[in-house]
Amino acid sequence: MSEKIDYKNKTKEELVKEIESLQKTIKEANDEVEIQTWGLKKTNEAIKLLYKELDSKNKELQKLDKLKSDFVSTVSHELRTPLTITKEGISLILDEITGKINDQQRRYLNIARDNIDRLSRLINDLLDMSKIEAGKIELKKSLVEITNFVKETCARWELEFKKKKQNFTLLKPGSKIFIYLDQDKIERVLNNLISNAVKYSCGGCNIQVELKDEKDFVEISVTDNGKGIAKEDLPKVFSKFYQFGRTEGPGEKGTGLGLAITKELVEMHQGTIEVDSDLGKGSKFTFTLPKMDYEIIFKEYINKGIKDAEEKKASLSLIVARIPQFNKIQEKLGYEGAHGFLCDIEKAINASLRRKADTVIRDTGELIIILFDTAKENVYTVKARIQNAVMDHARNMKDDILRNITVIFGSATYPDDAKNDDGLLDKARE
Amino acid sequence: MIKKLLLIDDNEQDKKIIKRFLNKAGYHNIVTASTGEEGVEKEKTEDPDLVITDTVLPGIDGFMVCAKIREFRGPGKPKVIVITGAIDAVDAVKARKSGADDYCAKTSDFMPLLEAIKKLK
């Protein structure tokens, strides 16, 4: 279109011809546009249909998935009881309570018991998985000092490492790190990973657990230089019922659910888990747990409590014990000393409480005691009891600063004083 | 009026289901083919009123089948519907340019196909 047309020097016929040719081009372009529009319209219709179909199939799958979970959960429950009874019977015979048995009988009974154990592991895993999938597992979080927690968990594996002649190393920071987590669940995660490392590494192999302190999270890795996992298997490692590199023969057989459960548990803690592995060179499983702000942790916890109380139409009380000169104590005794004192106070308070469900969360210079199901009229008795426990504990301290400590106690009750987390906390801190 | 149909699809399962589905919808005279070449040949010998072809076929594809039929028969008869499990705007245009009358998705209930057939005059 950029070429200039010299109309003056053209005859009428030439111009008509040119117009006709232009009209032809326009018609062709129009046709093309029409076809393209048709194509888009058809595609659009089809995509809408496919989307609808996908949606309904998805819903159907969800329904089936729930049906499966319910089924698994019911069946597992029903299987557990007869299994326990069977195991009990075999154990009685093995322990020769019912009379002497010969070596051959012992051998067969041992095999039977091992397999019953395996079956109950499988059933337990199935039950856990179905609970997780149904969202029925609730985390019971508390503040846990993770350095020591990892150390203690690893220590329980010492015998196993020795048995398989595996070299174990633990790398951890020297400082204490407090993480808000469900101790049982994370212990299970760590145990699962260590157990895999032991299972899939030969004698003489190295197994290393490392705890790293990052800014917003902690990272825990379990590394071994055992069998490793083939590259093509890596994406399926956390899938249900997926077992890789299984060897025939004796040894503890897995259920194929361990890593799937592990992943779910880590993710319930808002953490991540990943695997890095080379066939023949070993594997490294790394998971992270986020460090959460104290206020967020507290609010998460208290809101859970409020929700429960609301459902049960019960009350929930808070007692806050505050040490105003905590900074001074910290200056004098150092972080460790001051924190140690707080931990001791926490223990003293826990010992004075009559019910286990009562929980204490520790902050710098502040202790918050959450009393589930405790009404306003009962809170004062509990508060007095705690006050006595704390003061008794302080009186026995060596340092003057601790002996003469001032602790301010406050309390608030849901729904009497306030109906939300902030309101309760403000009231208790007054 | 559509009486005789030719269905070209290499997936035996799909072919069976579509055939059963069309039977139920009242179309009983259905011949089938599994490759593009076979489809083009059957079109010549069977002379159907409508050809339904999948896009991806072993040998020549559905678009080519369409073009060959139009080359042989000219416009009008038979009608051709291109069906696919992989929807693509470029493919839709290609189908139209090859002389197809309609282009639709292969859903599991095949309703779009039936609607497309009913819309043909």
Work out the helix count of chain B: 5
Mean pLDDT metric of chain A: 84
Which chains have the largest interface?
A: A-B, 14 and 19 residues
Structural class of the secondary elements of chain B? alpha/beta
The helix tally of chain A amounts to: 11
Q: Using the 3D structure, state the CATH architecture of chain B.
A: 3-Layer(aba) Sandwich
Q: Strand share of the residues of chain A?
A: 15-25%
Radius of gyration of chain A, whole Å: 33 Å
> Care to count the β-strands of chain A?
11
Spatial order of the strands in the main sheet of chain B?
2-1-3-4-5
Task: Identify the quaternary structure here.
Answer: heterodimer
Output the radius of gyration of chain B: 13 Å
Provide the number of structural domains of chain B: 1
What percent of the residues of chain B sit in helical stretches (DSSP H or I)? 40-55%
Overall shape of chain B: it is globular
β-strand percent of chain B reads: 15-25%
Distance between the termini of chain B: 7 Å
Query: Sheet bearing the most strands of chain A, described?
Result: 5 strands, mixed
CATH class annotation of chain B:
Alpha Beta
- The counted number of beta strands of chain B is 5
